[in-house]
Design goal:
mainly alpha; rod-shaped
Length: 84
């Protein structure tokens, strides 16, 4: 192993580090986005299942709860397809 080889290997490693950092940051951002959307979906599912009395306790009407549920396309489809 020569000094040129060591210097070249070090330069290649230094070039990869910023890319690795950007990729890691992108995956973290994606994971955070997915987690946030799942949390919102769970909240909307629970909101759709509340009774009129429970909605009144938190200060919402059935129309407001339905409007929030409709903001999620898949929940709106589920509610129209499931009999109540």
């Amino acid at each position: 192993m020569t000094i040129e080889t060591v210097c070249r290997d070090r330069r290649e490693t230094d070039d990869v580090a910023p890319l690795r950092h950007r990729v890691t940051a992108a995956f973290k951002a994606l994971a955070n986005t997915v987690a946030r959307r799942r949390r919102i979906r769970r909240t909307r599912i629970h909101l759709a299942g509340l009774s009129a009395e429970q909605l009144r306790d938190i200060g919402l009407s059935r129309e407001q709860a339905d409007a929030e549920t409709r903001r999620s396309l898949f929940l709106a489809i589920e509610r129209t397809m499931s009999p109540k």
